[in-house]
Amino acid sequence: MSQQIARAHTSQSNRAKPREGSDRRVQFRSVVDNPFHVQWPSVPANVQNAILACMLDMLSGLADHNLAREQLSRKRRRCGSRNAHPPKRAKVDHSATSPDPSDPIGPPVTHAMDAGTVDAETTPSILSSLTIGINGVTKRLEGLVRSYRRPVESRLEEGKSSVPDPPTSVFPTRLVIACRSDSDPPTLMGHIPNLVGACNSARKVNGTESGRSGGTWLVPMPKGTEDTLSAAMGLRRVSILLVDSSAPNFCTLASLLENVPLPVAPWLSVPNTGSPVMLIPTHIKQLRTSAPKDMKAAKEKRSKERAAAKERRRCALPKRIVVSSSG
């Protein structure tokens, strides 16, 4: 049996009918859970607070950039909507607007300020090292899993060895910060530990990294972190965030991850021939349900309801008409 903490699933079914809670009692049933499940890492509160403080220091100035970009975008949309619908009775002075054919220079042209150039000059350097949002982080992790794959050749060409050369590229370290306590429901991020574990296990299987360097860390944050990060970044919501090692001052952030466990999926790793086979322990979860307090009365009520439904179906059927032919 596994010694892991049992989880209570309290979500209601979409087809569940409303029932009176007075004649029913809460009941828990033990069922077998999915064994291919990566648990969320357990991170101490002081490490979580230190990581959050370091992230706020790294994100300084990003809120002003996002707010200025949003204001510029709103101004651009207002100007565009005004130009798209000109006044119907506006008088146009053709003598003033039509260019002179003999003038080689032509009328003066006003160039609009390129917003991309302005953004490129004022964009913080950390923005290129961030991936924000559940969809963005999911796609990024899936891309990392695919990047660790290597094709297996079925036929060996002449003059080539059957053992592929180890890759020489260095895979950087990255950190995933998840505000799981602020997510409603928390199951929206239930796939993140499996993706992070697949990234680390695929990295070990392919031999790209032998140590802890180049791994993907996952740190769940306490409740209220989402509001703090969204205020620091000038965004409405920041439920999950992926930080690459190319971010400024990432070495300070990486030093806080020394005692944080690295999520792995052991069933994706190729076991050594000399090591003994390790079995995954059985995962038992507690399913929260309800049962009638008086089981005998509930069975009698159910039998009466079934008899009444059967009678309604019988009455709804059309009567049989017997046609006889007289000789």
From TrEMBL:
Polar residues bias locations: 1-15
Organism encoding this protein:
Dichomitus squalens
Q: Which segments show compositional bias classed as Basic residues?
A: 74-91
- Write out the biased-composition intervals (Basic and acidic residues): 17-26, 291-310
Which GO cellular component term is one of those annotated? Answer: ribonuclease MRP complex
Which GO BP terms sit in this record? Answer: intronic box C/D snoRNA processing; rRNA processing; tRNA processing
| Entry-linked PANTHER family | RIBONUCLEASES P/MRP PROTEIN SUBUNIT POP3 (PTHR28272), RIBONUCLEASES P_MRP PROTEIN SUBUNIT POP3 (PTHR28272:SF1)
Question: Which Pfam families does the protein's record reference?
Answer: RNase_P_pop3
Q: Which GO terms describe its molecular function?
A: ribonuclease MRP activity; ribonuclease P activity
Q: Where is this region: Disordered?
A: 1-26, 73-113, 290-313
Which InterPro entries does the record associate with it?
RNase_P_Pop3
> Under which name does UniProt file this protein?
RNase P subunit Pop3-domain-containing protein
